[in-house]
Amino acid sequence: MANFRQAMSKHTFIYLVKSDIIIAENNVQSKDHHHHAIKIILQLRNKSSLLFNGNIVEHNTIIFNADRIHSLDSQSNPVLIFLINPESELGSHIRSGFLVNNDVFFTNIKYSQHLINHFNEFVSKQQSINEVLHIYDEIITAVCGDPADSFVIDERIRRIFMEINNLEDKKAPVKDLASLAYLSESRFMHLFKEEVKIPVRQYLSWLRLLDALKLIIGGKTFTEAAMDSGFTDLPHLHKTFTHYFGAKIQDYFNNSRFIQVWDFSDV
C-alpha cells in the first residue's frame, strides 16, 4: 500500500473482500515495505507506466510474491491493486502458476473494454458491494484463469490455520500450536515456515493487524482497535502497520476526504 501525494484530485478506495483486499488509487507513492499478501497491480490507461522497485514498467499487469520488499510509484497514473491471501486456494494457484521461479511476473493482458470501463470507474468513485464482487471475480479470472488447483499445504498446518482463526486476539504460545499439530516446538516452527514462507509469530502479527484494520473500519479508535486485536499498545499497532505497508496508519484513516474504506469480507 502507499503514501499518497496530498492533491485535491487524489482518491483512494479500499475494499476488504473475502480474505483479500482491493485498492483503487490514482496516485501512489510507497517506499520499501513488505506484507503477507500476493500483490497484483493493474494499470490500464493507454501508454502509462509506473516505477516498481525503482525500474520503469510498461506492462499492464504485475504479480508479486508475498513477504518480499518492494516499492511502487504510479507516476500519477491510476492503479488497481489486489492483495491476495497466499494461504487461500487462489494464493496457492497464483504461486504455483506464476511465481515458481521468480518473485515477480510481468505481463500484458488484453483486457476487454468492459473490464477497462470497470477499471476507470473503480479509480474514480465508490463502488457497490455487487460491483466490487463482480470486478473481483472478472479480474481474477482474466489474470489468473480458473484457480482449480487444490489447496496444497500440509494437513497439520491447515489444522493450525483453523485453530488460529478461532483465537479472538490471534495469540497463542508457539508450544501450544505445536502440540495441536503433534510436533515438537522446533519441528513445528520449521514446518510452518516451510509451508507458509514466514515464521508463525510473524503470521500471527499479520492476522492481528488485519483484525485491527477491520475494527477501525467499524468505528473503533486506534487505541481500542490495538487493544481489542491483541497488540500490546497503540505504538505497537503503529509500528506494525508501518512495517507492513510502508505508510503511517493515520495517513489512511485520519484523512477520509481522500481515503475511503469498506469491509465486504463477510459478504
Give your account of this protein's structure.
The chain is of the alpha+beta class and 267 residues long. It folds into 2 domains: 12-150, Jelly Rolls, CATH 2.60.120; 155-243, Arc Repressor Mutant, subunit A (Orthogonal Bundle). It is built from 10 helices and 11 strands. The chain has helices at 89-98, 113-122, 129-144, 155-165, 174-180, 185-196, 200-217, 222-228, 234-245, 249-253, and strands at 12-17, 20-25, 29-33, 38-42, 50-52, 55-57, 61-64, 70-73, 79-84, 104-107, 259-264. The strands form 2 sheets. A 7-stranded mixed sheet has the order 10-7-4-9-2-1-11, with helices on one face. A 4-stranded antiparallel sheet has the order 3-8-5-6. Strand 5 (50-52) and strand 6 (55-57) form a beta hairpin. Helix 5 (174-180) packs across helix 6. The longest helix has 18 residues, at 200-217. The radius of gyration is 18 Å and the shape is globular. The protein starts with 11 loop residues before the first strand and ends with a strand.
H/E topology pattern: EEEEEEEEEHEHHHHHHHHHE
Strand content: 15-25%
Give the CA-CA distance, first to last residue: 23 Å
The CATH class of the largest domain is identified as: Mainly Beta
Strand order of the largest sheet: 10-7-4-9-2-1-11
- What is the annotated CATH architecture of the largest domain? Sandwich
Name the overall outline. Answer: globular
Mean pLDDT: 84
- Count helical runs: 10
Q: Within the CATH hierarchy, at the fold level, what is the topology of the largest domain?
A: Jelly Rolls
Structural domain count: 2
Got a strand count?
Answer: 11
The residue ranges in which pLDDT falls below 50 over 5 or more consecutive positions are 1-8
Backbone CA Rg: 18 Å
Described by strand count, sense and barrel closure, the largest sheet is: 7 strands, mixed
Portion of residues within helices: 40-55%
Structural class: alpha+beta
